[in-house]
Each structure stands twice: as structure tokens, then as C-alpha cells.
Amino acid sequence: MKLIASSLICMLVWPVVSNAQDTPARGRLAALFVATRGVDSLPADPKMNVPAQDSKAPKDRRIDSLTRIRMADSVKKAVIVDALLKNPNLRPAMISTTFIGRGQLEGNFRGQNILSGNFVQRRTDALLNLPVKNWGKNGMVTATVYYVRTNYELSDIKGAEVKDANPSKNTVGLTTTYRRIDSLFGRMFISSARLILMTGDGGGVNKYTVMVNGMFLLKKTATTTFMLGAQVIYDPTVNMPVVPLMVYQKNLPNGFDLNITIPQQLTLRKTVSKNMWASFGTTLVSSVSFFNFTSPYVPRNSNFNSLDLKTGPSVDYKLNKLLLLGVSAGLWTPVMYRQYGRWEKSNHYFFDGKVDSTPYINVNLSVIPF
Length: 370
Prior knowledge:
Low-confidence stretches: 9-53
Number of strands: 15
Oligomer: single chain
Number of helices: 4
Order of helices and strands: HHHHEEEEEEEEEEEEEEE
């Protein structure tokens, strides 16, 4: 689902930042990363330019030109920072650790309950977004490298014997994306194609996915952004090849922002101060780990796929001109825990786990060129 979400967060700000000139160093860096990753917001008003020059002296016209450049840079920087705050997957770099509390696990093997016990997880994620090539109006190519380490802990087990009750799994992924902006049926149309390759502890390509998506910008005002689209997915394990996409953002009174991004998140955010932002909402989180077995009763190579909802408050604090510290906590609600053959459909699973909702806490550190 992270992959779907990052596709959804497209590059509506691209026209604003891709032609930036004479921007200060941090502004250029921010423009580079956001232009290559894409965001889901535009400047509040595309007409925020200085009025056209009249018949002034050359010196006055030069001053007006510099003023326009500075104002444009200020608008671009504000849009960029806002996009990076709303969408952690766009940030140039981030490291995050999530501690998920102890919950009761009920495990079913091919439809029969075989074990129960206490289940604990800890996940550490790191990502790096890299620009590859920018052809301007003809599109751009970017790359995202990410790493996930998941520690599982099963205790007080009743039922089947478990040889390794505390496995730790590493997942490494590379996503290459091509994006462009066009006009279709008189509206802005954002399209992208991406290839995702994933591997685990055993090496080799353990999972691949091809995604193609398109979104129409249907409404853009000073306070509202509304987009609709769809994503087509080719993956040997995916049961749903087409996913509807929607982005709705609304600036509310008293500094509140509503962000509904389907199928990823629903959040309400408030700017507390120039260095602090607070939010409350629900986010869909997914992960995959790769296992190798020697038992004749299960596939030798398998994927363990989880889908969870995390609900609660979060706070982001600007440490300096490059670093952002984030803390969130709340309720972790497992939706799906399944294990299936490496290249089989995920609904052909041999293990299905039911886990109680439990508290969680997340701490993350991001690079944001403020």
C-alpha cells in the first residue's frame, strides 16, 4: 500500500518548481526533490505574481523583475515544505522506527486453528529518494531505495510447535518511476509508470510490481484541491489489478488542513507554530517479509504480508534548516496477516493470522530543506 500511496502523491507542483531559477540553495534542493518525487498540492493561487511591468525606467524594471523572482521562490518554497510535511514518502531521506505493543495472535493453517500466543513487532524503515533524469515537459525519472527490518516476537505459544519464535527479516526495495504532466479533455492529467523490485535475506528478486496510474485535477481553488484517477497493477500476487485513487485537500479555518488520500490516509493537521505541526488521523500501512522453509507441508519460498491501520495523534518538530523530528502514537489495528507462496495470489494463503488491536509508538527523523 505504500507503493500505491507514493504513486497517488503525484506532481501537481511540478509546473511550479521545475522552472525555478536563481533560487537559494535550500530552495533549489527542495525544488529538485519535490519536482522529481511529485506532490499532491499546488500553490493556493496560481495568479500570485507581481503585476506586469509598465513603462518604467530600466532600473525600476530590473527591481520589479527581482521582486517577482523572490515572490515566486517564496511561493515555491512554501508549497514544497507543505507537501513534504503532508507526505513523508516524498522526503529526500527518512529513518523511522515503530514499536507495536503486545497483542493476542490466533494462527490458522489452511483454515484450521493451530496456535495462539502473544505477538510483538518492531519495524525500522529507511528510504532515500534520488533524481535520475529530468526532460522538463517530456517527463522525468526518479529512483527510491528503501530498507525495512522487521522483528517478530511470539511468546506463550499454545498449540503447534514453533522452531523460531523470534525471527528478524530484512526487505530491500528499489522503485524506478517515470512521470509526466499533460492536458487531457481540457484538464491537467498526471500520469506515471513504475517498476518495483524487492529482495530479502536470501537475495534475488523475491517480488516485482509494475504500476501505471493517471489522475485528473478536477478542482483547484485557494482552499481546495480535488483529484480523481485510477491505478493499474501487474503483480503475480495481487488480486485487485485496478485501484481507484482520490485526493481531497481542504484548508479549514484556524489553521487546520484536511487531507483525504484514498486508499492511504485521512488526516487533520494544524500548524502550532512556525516550527511545529500537529495532526490526528488514520493511515493504512503494509509490509512484506520473505521466508524460506524446508517443511514439505508449505511452499519452500513464501511471502508474509501484513496490512494494518494506525490511528492517533502525531507531532512534527523542526530541529534546524534540514532536519524534522516526528513522533506519533495511538492504536495499531491489524487488518490482514497472511502467508502464501512466493509467486501465488495472496488469497491462496496457507497461513492466516488474527491479531488484537494494540498500542504503538513511532519515532522518525527526516531531511526537509526548509
